[in-house]
Amino acid sequence: MNKTEANQLNQVAKRLFTSHYDGCHYSDPDNCGACALTIGNTSPNYAGWARVYVEGERPIPESWRMDFYDELCSENEAYRKKLEESVKWFGVRWQ
């Protein structure tokens, strides 16, 4: 990953946290990606959530720590490698 790629990933990830669909009333985690990423879920409710949090430089809730480690051990090798690369570049923040 280079700085340009990292900046692009960071911008996209940050946008995912705030881009609600038209008509969303900020309380629809089943149908809205931004709600799924930000509403106080007891566990992650968004595919690829770990990369989005890491690349968006958002703190991951402490209660999701084991879920995050599960993502690092994903059977999806391509996803796992991209997540590892993102962790090396951006680091991980815990809440």
Sum up the structure in keywords:
5 helices; single chain; 95 residues; mainly alpha
List strands and helices in order, with pairings.
Blueprint (H helix, E strand, L loop, with lengths): L2 H14 L16 H6 L10 H7 L9 H8 L4 H14 L5
Helix pairs in contact: 1-3, 3-5
Account of the protein in words:
- By secondary structure, the protein is an all-alpha fold.
- It has one domain.
- It has five helices and no strands.
- The chain has helices spanning 3-16, 33-38, 49-55, 65-72, 77-90.
- The longest helix has 14 residues, at 3-16.
- The chain starts with a helix and ends in a 5-residue tail after the last helix.
- The mean pLDDT is 93.
Shape: globular
- Radius of gyration, whole Å: 13 Å
C-alpha end-to-end distance: 26 Å
Number of individual domains: 1
Number of helices: 5
The number of E-state strands comes to 0
Order of helices and strands: HHHHH
Query: What is the chains' assembly state?
Result: single chain
User: Which regions contain 5 or more consecutive residues with pLDDT less than 50?
Assistant: none
